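hi! just following up on the protien thing from before. the input was this:
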Amino acid sequence: MESLTALSVLAVPLVFAVAMWRSARSAGALPALLAAAAIVCVDAFGIVDLNLGAVQNIMLLLVAGLGWIVSRFSEHYLAGDPGQPRFFRWLNALLASVTLVIVADNLVVFWLAWVSISLSLHQLLLFYPERPRAALAAHKKFVFARIADAALLTAFVLFYWQYQTLSIDNLATIWRSGESLPVSMQIAACLIVLVAVLKCAQMPFHGWLIQVVEAPTPVSALLHAGVVNLGGFLLLRLSGLLELSGVASGLLLLVAGASLVLAALIAITRISIKVNLAWSTVAQMALMLVQISLGLYALAMLHLVAHSCYKAYAFLNSGSQVQQFVTASAAPGGGARFHTALFGTLVAFAGYLYLASQFELAISTPEWLLLALYSIGFGSLWRRRGWLLSLGMVVALVSLHLSLKTAIESHLILPASSAPDWALIWTALVILALATGGWLMRFGRNSALRQTLSRHLYAGLYLDEWATRLTLAVWPVRLPKPFTLKPDTIVKETQP
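and the predicted 3d structure came back as:
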């Protein structure tokens, strides 16, 4: 088993190298090949542990699949572009760095690979440096990433100072013993939460993720489907620390819950497909962080994988989604109505109740709250016409969700933890606010409250403007000037 795991670890960067060999030649494949060699070398010194856990194995498969898909798409997307070799070099560097983060058991290697991810991504975001919005988004991402890097380094220094070990697995063993955390570890846990919030682009640090849609489509797909998920992976990797720190988990729940409600409602007001998907990513990452803060690690892992697959497909297929949206909206009975959405929600939740009772699934109170939220999402799939097809779709999705959740849960060594009463109350309020606001935005078109709310939500509650001003005040940057045609040039070109 260990040998198979080792081969899977080595296969990830090798797949990147083979996939890129034709388009990027040796220069494009070199970073991935070096990463494979580095994994082999450092394993001899015990820096990388090839006896990986379930979370790491799942992430490796996910990264390998996404990397291959994005790479193949990029070959055609950037065909003929003079910057294609440069794109693939940085893409391979990014994928190799993500692989090292997943398999690293050493705090130093983990941090260096974490920083390398940010630097490689920065180069991809600036693939078109002449675009002012792209440059501004990359700059804000760079500043937030440096704050996250400093916070992560501080937390790791505190880990070593307290326990005198650089092994993440050893730290996990210590935390699983259940001993109370000293003040230094409480601070470290809060710093880890800060890193995850910044990495997952939670509000008000979200603006860069919305604006990077001007980057090449494969970059957006890889960013939204993979890189932002690393905040959740970090928390899952250090879940033992989060279990013992009520302050850190509570802070995570408060921030993620508020970001979930706001981002989901803002996404409803957006018309642009890419911008809508970007806001959806912020909301989905917030939901994943809520699951982690409640101790629902299997559910969070399932959410991470499902969101990655969906979001990669959505971005790579964003061009055709415009026509699909128009067709679905114009179809008879295609528009959702309140009573049909409510009926679909009740059917979905009833399905959860029935399947849980039939298969004797152990579902905790926090999980029931989130299942109610998922039921609201499934209810939106319900249509006034074709109720039999809608029923079959909802039942199939509910069954698939519970099956995959149970399968992942059986392979994770992360047991679900109990949440305090205040956390359950806050989660219930978040779900209530999300359901009320969502139905108001969807079905209250003639409501004055809805119109007022839409105006402020469309502006993103002005949070990004404040964050941008603060960022430029702390770290100014000269942005490229947008390309404009002179009036005399336009006149000359239009003259016969």
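The radius of gyration is 23 Å.
Residues 2-43 form the longest helix (42 residues).
cheers
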